[in-house]
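Just scan my protein:

——
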Amino acid sequence: MTRKTIAVTGIVAVLAMVLVWHTVQRHNEQLQKAKEQTLRGHLSAMRAALKAYEEDHHSKAHTLADLVRSGELAKIPVDPITSSASTWRLTVEENVRVDDFRAAAPAASAPSIIDVRSGAPGLDSSGRPWSDY
C-alpha cells in the first residue's frame, strides 16, 4: 500500500466514525423526545383520571391504586424516565382538624392526591427538570 492509499483509508475511516457518532446521537435525541412525549401522555392520563375520580366519587383519590380500583386507569403507568410505576411524586392535601389536640378525636382521613409529577431526577432535553412535568 502506498502512503496515499493509507491516508485516504484513514480519512474514510474517520468520516465513517463521525457518521456513526452522528447517527447514534440523533437516535439518542429521538429516543429522549419519545420518552418526554410518553411522560406527558402518562401524566395527562393520570390527571384526567384524578379529575374523573373526584367527579364520580365526590372526593379525591388517596392513592394511585384507587384510580385503578375505580376503573379510571387500567393500571398505574410506568414513568418512562425512571422505568418504574412507583416513582411518581404525588402532591397531596391533608385534612387538618381544629380539635385534633383532644385525646378522643377521631383519626384524620388519609391525604388526598391533588396532582402527580415525575419523580425522575435530572433535566429533559430543553433543560427543564423532570419534576416540573
Q: What stands out?
A: Helices lie at 3-57, 64-69. Residues 3-57 form the longest helix (55 residues).
